[in-house]
Specification:
Chain lengths: 231, 231
DNA sequence: GTGCCTTTGTGAAGCCATGCACAAAGTCGA
DNA sequence: TCGACTTTGTGCATGGCTTCACAAAGGCAC
């Protein structure tokens, strides 16, 4: 059978598209708050900071939800993207490592706002255990596996020092977690089937520094670049 | 003259490569701490979590710093990558918005550790101004431009609420800053020549949720995926 | 010096993402 | 009902990134 109907959603949405869906969702929520009922790909793309053709191609992976000559229904598109991202259910998240960063995350309102619920705060330091943060009590990380199982935690945020991250990672995976958001500056080793995403401030700054250096070096090609290239 | 020697560093290093250099640098520092003198692309790639061919091609963009049959000299490669990233000089960074997140960032040791120095903490809230954090005093954001100019700030971290981010962004750009790290969940609009990188927790969680949803839906290929493909 | 062995640096192929450009589709006014 | 206009959905070309595979390069043992 050679016939090959390129059915949307037949299997997978490109990673690049998935990474942009939250952006579209945010832009759509902004429009919805201002009472906008429909939006064209051009306008939505502008709000999300992407090319309109890319936006349309991205949305076409979810299905054909637009109306030609009109645009997209804001509310309907919000629902479809939310459903696709799995935000119509709520996800229990545990934060391991309640130091500077862990506290900031626990207090972060935007966390809860869209489908994510902080179901546990865990730390290894007895001095921190028992602290009340954002309505939760910090528990000892000895009970990590129990917390994960009992509260149905499916996403774990690692905000421990780098030295503890792999160990915490191994434990939560053993407890059945397959989605990890890592703030520690280490490359986590995980088995197939486990997703790790990392947020790394240090890397971002270094990338900025790279470009900044090129700017201040006096234009596109500085003298040093030519050194040794003669002959 | 048709001869075209593909000299490394002739013009630009691919973005994808630049984004990985900090990863290599981190892995190399780990090796250096353990006293390793030389490392093969295979081993370094393993430590950095990438394919070894990719590592070699990345490094080849900087120059030909390896020795065939031996590998790369760890210290020398650290120096070369550092220099390429602009980490041999130190960068003055200002943090605007000293709330939960801004405080965590200010207290973050890994900031200073590699070429970045927090040169200013600024906030609009009089209740926060005057606080002492990590050896610095929080200043009022009215003086943003003055701080940037007087202390040679070239990278600004925005950790204000989303509503204030664009305004802060406009001001720091007007003050001459061309590198911004944005933590606020908004798409910043900037003129050409300004680099913005964003760190967005919410997006990362949503991407994790997407994949997690697919997993729990019943394995690698769920029934719904096959609907309509028969025949 | 010579030959073997290891490892680099890179040509080439394949893959994925981007963005243009346009036909198809649907709305809306007359 | 019809025609003009708007906007979507997508075929296609382009470009960048990744990966394989290997010739060239260099160290090292003898
Ligand atoms: N603070 C920031 O702005 C920032 C920025 C980027 C990255 N990071 C990274 O995020 C991580 C946390 O940073 P931080 O500033 O909050 O550090 P922190 O030292 O303030 O907090 C770390 C916390 O983790 C706890 N901990 C240690 N081992 C543990 C274990 N095995 N199980 C559970 N908890 C454990 C400690 O008791 C402590 O409370 C670090 O890896 C840091 O490099 C932080
Ligand atoms: N806390 C987190 O873990 C987290 C995670 C992801 C994203 N974010 C984002 O980071 C930003 C900061 O988060 P937060 O939790 O620290 O919020 P916060 O409310 O605790 O802190 C914001 C700070 O910015 C200051 N501010 C407001 N307007 C300002 C202005 N015009 N100039 C200077 N300072 C100003 C406020 O006075 C306050 O101190 C928010 O946009 C948030 O969405 C936070």
């Amino acid at each position: 059978m050679i016939r090959r109907i390129p059915q949307a959603r037949e299997r997978g949405i490109p990673d690049a598209t998935v990474a942009r869906l939250p952006l579209y969702l945010r832009a759509l929520n902004g429009l919805a708050e201002r009472g906008t009922a429909t939006v064209s790909s051009e306008d939505l793309a502008l709000a999300a900071g992407v090319n309109s053709a890319k936006l349309r191609k991205d949305l076409s992976h979810l299905g054909s939800y637009g109306t030609r000559g009109v645009g997209y229904d804001v509310q309907y598109l919000i629902y479809q993207i939310s459903r696709e991202l799995g935000l119509t259910q709520d996800w229990a998240v545990a934060i391991v490592g309640v130091g500077n960063l862990g506290r900031a995350l626990a207090n972060y309102g935007g966390f809860v706002s869209r489908g994510f619920r902080v179901a546990g705060l865990l730390d290894a330091d007895p001095a921190v255990v028992g602290d009340h943060i954002a309505g939760l009590t910090v528990e000892h990380s000895d009970g990590l596996e129990a917390v994960i199982r009992k509260r149905g935690v499916s996403i774990v945020v690692i905000a421990t020092p780098a030295t503890a991250a792999q160990q915490v990672c191994d434990r939560v995976i053993a407890a059945g977690v397959t989605s990890i958001l890592n703030f520690a500056p280490v490359v986590l080793t995980v088995p197939d089937g486990v997703d790790v995403r990392k947020v790394d401030l240090s890397i971002e700054l270094q990338i900025l520094a790279f470009h900044e250096q090129r700017k201040v070096s006096g234009g596109p090609m500085m003298a040093e670049d030519w050194a040794g290239e003669a002959g």
